[in-house]
Amino acid sequence: MSEVSAADNANGQVTLLARNLSRNYGNKRAVRDVDLTLTRGEVRGLLGLNGAGKTTTMQMLTGNLAPTTGAITVCGIDMLDRPTQAKARIGYLPETPPLYKELKVDEYLHLAARLHRVPKARVAEAVATAKRRCGLTDTGGRMIGALSKGFQQRVGIAQAIVHAPDVVILDEPTVGLDPNQRREIRELIRELGRGHSVILSTHMLDEVEMVCDSVQIIAQGSVVFSDSIAAMRQVRSGQRLRVGFRHAPPASALTTLPGVQSAETEPDGFLRVLHAEDRDPTDVIVRASVDHGWGLKHLSRDLTSLEDAFMELTRAEDSAPAAGATA
Hints:
Layout: H1 3-8, E1 14-25, E2 28-39, E3 43-47, H2 54-61, E4 69-74, E5 77-78, H3 83-87, E6 90-93, H4 105-115, H5 123-133, H6 149-161, E7 167-171, H7 179-192, E8 197-202, H8 205-211, E9 214-219, E10 222-228, H9 229-233, E11 240-245, H10 251-254, E12 260-265, E13 271-275, H11 282-292, E14 296-301, H12 306-319
Parallel strand pairs: 3-8, 3-9, 6-7, 7-8
Antiparallel strand pairs: 1-2, 1-4, 4-5, 9-10, 11-13, 11-14, 12-13
Helix pairs in contact: 4-5, 4-6, 5-6, 6-7
């Protein structure tokens, strides 16, 4: 175990640790200096536009692609030094599930359990547990190819957890599903988060908001944000206020107040105020409302929507020349 991973695993809660991960293709760098720390019971969203570097990152985390530089440990086991032992702690569902559609569900999951080196005496129990957790209890005798896309995705997740891994990595698990199927898979992922650490790769903001505890945003192969969902919404909210008046003045009236940089009226009649970083105009707005009879009824920090925050975080990176980033 590396010194870094030993320190980070001191409390026994870190399940996956990556430091300075980079991947080059010739002279082009697809992923650069990615750090990631995943704790037990956490569902982490790996968010980015198509081509941002998400899949390349996940392939390195699962040991399917060697990093050009960097280190990965899984439950304290170095991925490069002891790859077999490290990979045994990971369950992986790629974007295209690795299904044998000519097999029955039970046949396939028994095969997956043996490939994951589940002891023969425990295979039946392991398969039954995975089926129960994935809502497949009544489908064991059915051909995988005859199942709906949603149920095939459940089978793919079942093969990823049949060996009870510490870390479950899911690459775009709801792509191509209808709304009801997406909801069911999201509920399943939340359930998985109670017993495993989960990384969910997606480009859908609503999915991250509904499923994940934290989010890591990748743009042009680099991490541009890594924190909680609440922190992501605060990206710009520190400099914005949402203000409501009973007798609302024109937005231009607020721009004359000290510290106010701009103001605009929203469709619901509230005003959104952007102020200088070092000048909070809250007191000034309150006094102006009293002096002019505007009737202040609401004043709060304006929380950024996830979409606004995402665009703000990725705008600078996406405007830079591409550096060979892949999906």
